[in-house]
Design goal:
It is found in: Mitochondrion. InterPro entries: Thiolase, Thiolase-like, Thiolase_acyl_enz_int_AS, Thiolase_AS, Thiolase_C, Thiolase_CS, Thiolase_N. This protein is α+β, with helices and mostly antiparallel strands and 466 residues long. The chain is built from 15 helices and twelve strands. 36% of the residues lie in helices and 17% in strands. Strands 3, 4, 5, 6, 7, 8, 9, 10, 11 and 12 form a ten-stranded mixed beta sheet that branches. A two-stranded antiparallel sheet has the order 1-2. β1 and β2 form a beta hairpin.
């Protein structure tokens, strides 16, 4: 048997051979490489999306997987990059298709990307593809990868509907039953109530309140009238129609739906109406006094989006001219009961502070429009000293952004809002608008279920073209 002294000597010899240092108190690793904390420039090369369609229309017989695949194929065809350069793919989705739990991976395989390219799916409600983008930014910043595709997809035309919990329990028991008698006994216990389906939640889990009710309460708290909400909705649809007519929505890639003759080449929710027509609609949630209607709220939509991001160094090596730098981002959370949709009012000042910018520096604003009342409430909060002092811990208000630069091509109220696809749509519109409007900085903000929100800063790339 080896003595303790001899055993210790052999351990030291072995550790020394393989590059480890050892002392009498324990073992310490000695690394040959050093951490490089130098910041990398991360660029947004370009983004694409399917047309955003109202749920239950032309896409109704497809799957989310089909739309995600199209966005990945369209991105590669538009930019013309070799698929093998993509090192990682991350997609957002909110309501998952049961058969495709990791839609990022399945869509990537179907789109012809390498089976050696890892992919994962994230969810963060309406900011899921923002989370996909910033997850990609983090992987690049840490030096894990250089080239990433980030995207998102949502398909509300076909949502997973489960049997009731009691029925599911019986079915699981039946699967384990070994005799005919046991199975018949279970069958005899079935009652009509077992057949009531378990639908996906339309209310906040923590408060059991629908988002429409939250928007009505928020609008009431800030004194926003029904007419103001209708006026904002009309603005969104009018600006979107103008952008569509002028060809500014160039991120949209037409889609040929199988067994449908007409090519889908535009968003189908854009409808310019009149204030008189909007005023005739009845409140959808708080009746009869609420301000939220079918016309001034975002509608259930189907669609997918994708963007190529990478280090600036890699883009130059590949001969690509990016559209923008991805600069700063932040996520915020607040009370989901009283401030569910007020996230942008928190995220905007925080991300401006991180970027050392102010309101006047922002030439392009792209803000997710969940409800017209929600947008107007956030604008009032930003321009309120009381809100700044009470909730933000600031001495003075942030102020009101230049609304001539705010969602100039419309927004989710008009273009559509496939939950997990909106974030990349906002980023691509920000990049394209900065180029067309000759602006240096753009700011993205969006609220999400759970009382969360995102704020992001993008900067136009020198020499960028639409």
């Amino acid at each position: 048997m080896l003595s303790l002294a001899k055993h210790t000597f052999l351990l030291k010899e072995g550790f020394a051979k393989y590059g480890f240092a050892i002392n009498t108190l324990g073992v310490t690793n000695s690394y040959a490489t050093k951490s490089n904390n130098a910041a990398k420039n991360i660029v947004f090369v370009d983004g694409v999306r399917t047309p955003f369609l109202q749920s239950g229309t032309t896409y109704k017989n497809l799957m989310a997987y089909d739309l995600a695949r199209h966005s990945l194929v369209a991105l590669q065809r538009k930019i013309k990059f070799p698929k093998e350069i993509v090192e990682y793919i991350v997609y957002g989705t909110v309501i998952q298709e049961l058969r495709v739990s990791n839609i990022a991976r399945e869509a990537a395989l179907a789109a012809g990307y390498s089976d050696r390219t890892p992919a994962h799916t994230v969810t963060m409600a309406c900011i899921s593809s923002n989370q996909a983008l910033t997850t990609g930014m983090g992987l690049i910043a840490c030096g894990v990868y250089d080239v990433i595709i980030a995207g998102g997809v949502e398909f509300m035309s076909d949502i997973p509907i489960r049997h009731s919990r009691r029925m599911r329990s019986l079915m699981l028991q039946a699967n384990k039953a070994k005799t005919v008698g046991q199975k018949l006994s279970l069958l005899a216990s079935v009652r009509p109530g077992h057949f009531v389906p378990d639908l996906p939640a339309v209310a906040e889990f923590s408060t059991n309140e629908t988002m429409g009710h939250s928007s009505d309460r928020l609008a009431a708290a800030f004194g926003i009238t029904r007419k103001e909400q209708d006026e904002y909705a009309l603005r969104s649809h009018t600006l979107a129609a103008n952008a569509q007519r002028q060809g500014y929505l160039s991120d949209l890639i037409p889609y040929k739906v199988p067994n449908v003759d007409q090519l889908v080449d535009k968003d189908n929710g854009i409808r310019v109406s009149t204030l008189e027509q909007l005023g005739k609609l009845k409140p959808a949630f708080v009746k009869p006094y609420g301000g939220v209607t079918a016309a001034n709220a975002s509608f259930l939509s189907d669609g997918a989006s994708a963007a190529l991001i990478m280090t600036e160094e890699k883009a130059l090596q590949l001969g690509l001219v990016p559209k923008a730098y991805l600069r700063n981002f932040t996520y915020v959370s607040q009370d989901p009961a009283d401030q569910l949709l007020l996230g942008p009012a928190y995220a905007i000042p925080q991300v401006l502070q991180k970027a050392k910018l102010n309101l006047k520096d922002i030439g392009v604003w792209e803000i997710h429009e969940a409800f017209a009342g929600q947008i107007l409430a956030n604008l009032k909060a930003l321009d309120s000293n009381w809100f700044a002092q009470t909730y933000m811990g600031k001495s003075t208000k942030v102020g009101t952004p230049d609304l001539s630069k705010w969602n100039a091509w419309g927004g989710s109220l008009s273009i559509g809002h496939p939950f997990a696809a909106t974030g990349v749509r906002l980023a691509t519109h920000t990049a394209n608008r900065m180029i067309r409007e000759d602006q240096q900085f753009g700011l993205i903000a969006a609220c999400a279920a759970g009382g969360q929100a995102v704020g992001m800063i993008m900067e136009r790339y020198p020499g960028a073209k639409v």
